[in-house]
Known about the structure:
Enzyme class: transferase
Radius of gyration: 17 Å
Structural class: alpha/beta
Domain Nucleoside phosphorylase: 34-269
InterPro entries: Nucleoside_phosphorylase_d, Nucleoside_phosphorylase_sf, PUNP, Purine_phosphorylase, Purine_phosphorylase-2_CS
Distance between the termini: 39 Å
Number of helices: 8
Order of helices and strands: HHEHEEEHEEHEHEHEH
Number of strands: 9
GO biological process, one term: nucleoside metabolic process
Largest sheet: 5 strands, mixed, barrel
Family: Belongs to the PNP/MTAP phosphorylase family.
Strand order of the largest sheet: 5-8-7-6-9
Amino acid sequence: MSDAVDLLQSDPAAAAVAAAAELARITGVENHDVAVVLGSGWLPAADVVGTTVIDIPVTDLPYFAPPVVEGHAGRLRSTQIGDTRTLVFLGRTHLYEGRGVEAVAHAVRTAAAAGCRVVVLTNGCGGLNPSWSPGTPVLISDHINFTNASPLRGGAFLDLTDLYSTRLRELCRQVQPGMPEGVYAQFRGPQYETPAEIRMARVLGVDLVGMSTTLEAIAAREAGMEVLGISLVTNFAAGMTGAPLDHQDVLDTGHAAAHHMGVLLREVISNL
């Protein structure tokens, strides 16, 4: 295990190529087209997205770690959505797990190495807009990275002006007219944000807060992928209602919205 971790950290691109090669061997599919990463509470949506061809533990591929968070199944599906072959990651690795940025980015880098040119990053998040009740899907228009980390190395300067694709957001609104969008901020976690941190985030123009997505989005852009981000508001952010935050609420809200979210993803991917 230590050798695998050392290789993932020393040469993440090679680790992704190795994982993609094993994926092709297991699935018999040389190239996939689209990748979807399902966040907290989103897992039941996987049954609605498309026709599952193969379902495997993600740990069957090199350099993937088992899940540690409830609501993240740690499985990978090769799914057919119309003519589009899609990789659906049922869960993700989070920075707060302590495995490093390369482990967080490994899924999207593997997807890119497997041929995916589009990635859909989803999450369950806290909402700062009082008009977005729990269960509201929101397009990510931009982000603020509060993790003090990056998947980039050295002088790998990367333009993030249109990181969350305008084209893909417009496509989502064709599928679901009036779908709102907002700025997402990733905190490191695993503790939830304090009310003071939420007040700070609001001043900075943040609409959504969570503990994932931004590092994956940066890695995906570095790999040349087009990125679509969709947050599901699972609770109001800390201090907005006075109620305590509970991960079970995140999962319950996601389960309640699962069918709708799966249909949305299926329709968007079908129209790429």
